[in-house]
Write a structure and sequence with these properties.
This protein has one domain (about 5-470). Helices cover about 75% and strands about 0% of the residues. It contains 22 helices and no strands. The chain has helices at about 5-10, 30-45, 55-65, 75-105, 110-120, 125-135, 145-160, 165-180, 185-195, 200-230, 235-240, 255-275, 280-290, 295-305, 315-325, 330-350, 350-360, 365-380, 385-395, 405-420, 430-435, 440-470. The longest helix is centred in the N-terminal third of the chain and has 30 residues, at about 75-105. The protein is globular, with a radius of gyration of 21 Å. The two termini are about 30 Å apart.
Amino acid sequence: MSLLSSILPAVATIVPLADSSTAPAADTVQLIIAAIVSILLIVVLIIWVKMHPFFALMLGSAVMAVAANMGFENSFTSFSTGLGATVGGVGVLIVLGAVIGRFLTESGGADEIVDTILAKTPAKRLPWAMAFAAFIIGIPLFFEVGVVLLIPIVMLVAKRAKLPVILVGIPALAGLSALHGLVPPHPGPLIAIDALGANLGLTLALGLLVAIPTVIVAGPIIAKPMARWVPIHASDKLLGPADRAHTGRRPSFGIALSVVLMPVVLMLIMTTVKALALNTSPVGQVLVFIGTPLQALLITSLYAMWVLGLGLGRSTAEVASETGASFAPIASILLIVGAGGGFKQTLVDSGVGQVIGSGIAGSGMPLLLAGWLVAVAIRIATGSATVATITAAGIMAPLVGELSDTHVALMVLAIGAGSVFLSHVNDAGFWLVKEYFGMTVTQTFKTWSLMECAVSVVGLAGVLLLGLVV
C-alpha cells in the first residue's frame, strides 16, 4: 500500500480533495479577477460593514461562484459542500478538543501544567518553551488538533505570567505550522513524497533541519514586535472560571500532562505502525484505528472525563454538565471555520488554483523556486495548504525526473513551505486562530497571517541554502 493511499482517508476528514481533471469554468483572467473581487468583498463586509464573518464568507462564496461562471443555480453548492466537510472533519476535532480543554481547565489540570512551566522557566524564556512544546507535540498531529490542545495552555500561561497572549501564542502556532508544512507524517508532506517519488527518511531528516530555524525565526523572534502591535491579553471566553483558585482535589502534573500527550502518543504509534508496514496484522489495525485524529481525540476526551472528572470525586451528573458547558463557547467558532471551508471549496471548484499553478510551472524559473511559487499561488487562491500541496506536487512531478534524491526531497519541502504562505480570509485556519485568540480581522492579519508568511519564506530560504550544499 502506498503512502498516498494510506493517508488520503485521514486527509479527507480535514479537506476534500480538488478534482484536478475538471476544466475551469471561466478563462484565466476572469477567474483571477473573480477571486480578487470575492476576497476583497469579504474583507470589506467584515471590517467596514461590520457584518458577521459567517454571512460575509457566504456572500463572498456566492459572488465567486457567479463571477467564475459556475452558474446562479450552483452559487451555494460548493459552499455547502465545503462547510459540511469542514465541520464534519475539523469541527468534530474542535468539539472534542473543547471537551478536553474544559476538563483540563476546570479540574485545575491546566493550572498544574502552567504552574510547573512557570516554576521551571523564566518569564523571558516562556515563548521559547511554548515553541519547543508545540514543536514536539506537533510532530504527529494535524495542525487543527494541535491548536485545540494547546490553546487552553497558551491562554493560561499568558494570563498567569501576565504576558501578551501573542507573545506566547505565536511561538506555539509557528511550531505547529512549520511541522504541518515541512515534516512527515503530516499529510501534506506525505502526499508530496508519494507524488514526487521522494525518499521518506531523507525528507524527514531534511524537513526537521529546515523546521528548527524556521520555528525560531517565525516564533519567539517575530512574536516580540507582534506583541507590541497587537497587545491583547488572554481571553476568558474559553477559559471561563478556570483560572480561579481550585479548592477541591487537583490532578498531579503527570496526570494532567498525560491528557495532553495521549493523542500525540496514539497518533505517533499509528504513524510508526504504518511506516514499519505492520498495519496488516490485527494488532496493527487496532493501533492504526485508535491513532487516527478523530478516534485519538475521542479516546482522550473519555480519558479526561475519567481522570479529571470522576477520578477527582465528581459525580456522573457533574461530568455530564461540564461536558455540555464546553460546547457553548465554540458554537460561533464552528460556524465561522465551516464558512471559511465553504469559501475555500468554492475557489477550489472554480479552478483558479489550477490555472495559476500551471502558468508558474511553465515559466522556466529554477525548479525549487517554481515549486514554492506554485504552492504559494494555489494556497492564496484556495486557502488550503493540503490542496496547495496536492496540486503543486502534481504539477511539478513531471519536472523532477532528472533531480537527485536529495533535491527531490527538497522539492517536497519547497512545496510544503509554499503551502502555508499567507493564510487569509479563505482559510478556515485563519478564522480558527482569530476566534480562539479573540482578535479582529486586522489583528489576525498582523499576527497569524504574517507569521505564516514568515514560516513560508524562512522555510524556502532553508531549502534553497540546503540546495546549494547537498
